[in-house]
Design brief:
- α3 links the parallel β4 and β5.
- By secondary structure, this protein is an alpha+beta fold.
- It is 25% helix and 33% strand.
- The chain has eleven helices and 17 strands.
- The protein folds into two domains: 159 residues, Gcn5-related N-acetyltransferase (GNAT) (Aminopeptidase), CATH 3.40.630; 190 residues, no CATH class.
- The relative contact order is 0.12.
- Strands 9, 10, 11, 12, 13, 14, 15 and 16 form an eight-stranded mixed beta sheet that branches. The chain has a seven-stranded mixed beta sheet with strand order 1-2-3-4-5-7-6, with helices on one face.
- The longest helix has 16 residues.
Length: 365
């Protein structure tokens, strides 16, 4: 799937793209509300930008945000949500051709990352009841239906003061302050750079494998670790293992990202298959960097095989990745395979701080 998310000026976006037809129909404009076309043109004149996913067919996703929206939200039952600074998703649409392709998951993830960075307690969006797949996505990521507005739309709010930490998706992108341990997952650089494409490495040309991986937040790792030091719902640091021949590996092998483990399945053990190949493929879905032939080869030839599903929670970014030398010098590298690393809460926080992550805005009560 070619294409990626970009922030683009409204003036650079083609309003006549068929993608926008449903929004024009849903919001024609009335005596008391602005129509979509008028609103879009006003944003273009103001020099505003939106988050857009485009491919060779045109626009696949469109999201517009309004930071620090402060307004009362009047519901049709007469109740009023008080005036409070919120991040408002004024527009969100994912094209039907991307149903089950996880573009929506990726788009919402980018939005929630921005919400975290803004620091407001609430994020909200309104959506018509007919948009079933969008409603499913919002509820999956912790948005709560609080009622309908006067326009007949469902109002969904997510509040960082009231997160459901029993489900990593609903809590995303925040980690519970009750966490005690974190693990580590080492991934060769050619696969890492496709799985975790937002984790740019400073002064490093990423060698990418040209495989079709959707832009969602769920990632699947396939391997045969002897042991794992993390469990489901625990944080996992992603270690990019440098396998090239240039420079010093101690400075090029780095921790780039952090995830939450959402599923761990032993597919084969000691040559015995616990799941059929078809069941294995259904678990992998479109979340792996491997093509079908490679998955088949691993299933047939590996005596032991483990599937680890991860929710991509955050990344350090260019210039902030934490290299092996720092880990070794600061008591965060042990005489064992990284899969066996059992980081304490304080060690985990120490690595996040070194990666220039505001820990107090990630690990919350």
């Amino acid at each position: 799937m070619a294409g990626k998310f970009k922030r683009k000026l409204f003036s650079e976006i083609k309003l006549d793209d068929p993608f926008f037809d449903s929004l024009k129909s849903d919001y024609p404009g009335t005596s008391s509300s602005t129509g979509f076309i008028e609103w879009f043109n006003r944003k273009a004149a103001e020099g505003k930008k939106a988050l857009v996913f485009e491919d060779h067919q045109g626009i696949g996703a469109f999201i517009n945000l309004k930071p620090n929206e402060s307004e009362e939200i009047i519901l049709d039952n007469g109740s009023i949500l008080p005036n409070e600074a919120r991040l408002k998703i004024t527009t969100i649409k994912i094209d039907e051709r991307y149903r089950h392709r996880r573009i929506g998951e990726g788009a919402l993830g980018l939005t929630l990352w921005q919400w975290k960075d803004l620091g407001t307690n609430e994020i909200y969006v309104t959506v018509f009841e007919k948009h079933i797949s969008l409603i499913y996505l919002l509820e999956k990521f912790g948005f709560v239906h609080v009622g309908n507005n006067l326009n007949g739309e469902r109002v969904y709010i997510k509040d960082r003061r009231n997160l459901d930490f029993s489900d990593p998706c609903k809590a995303f992108p925040f980690i519970s302050n009750q966490m005690n341990h974190a693990g580590c997952l080492a991934i060769d650089m050619k696969y890492h750079d496709t799985m975790f494409a937002s984790s740019e490495l400073a002064n490093t040309l990423q060698e990418r494998v040209d495989l079709c991986v959707a832009n969602g937040l769920k990632k699947v790792y396939i391997g045969h670790p002897y042991s794992l030091a993390f469990k489901i719902n625990e944080p996992v640091l992603i270690y990019r293992r440098y396998t090239g021949n240039n420079g010093r590996p101690g400075y090029k092998s780095v921790i780039t990202s952090y995830c939450i483990a959402t599923r761990i399945e032993q597919i084969k053990t000691n040559g015995y298959a616990l799941y059929t190949f078809e069941e294995f493929i259904r678990m992998v879905g479109n979340k792996s960097v491997y093509e079908l032939a490679e998955l088949k080869k691993q299933y047939d030839t590996s005596p032991s095989l483990t599937l680890i599903e991860l929710l991509y929670y955050g990344y350090f970014g260019a210039g902030n990745n934490v290299n092996w030398q720092w880990l070794k010098n600061n008591g965060c590298w042990f005489d064992a395979h990284p899969m066996s690393f059992h980081y304490s809460k304080e060690q985990f926080k120490k690595i996040l701080w070194e990666g220039n992550i505001d820990v107090n805005n990630v690990i919350v009560d």
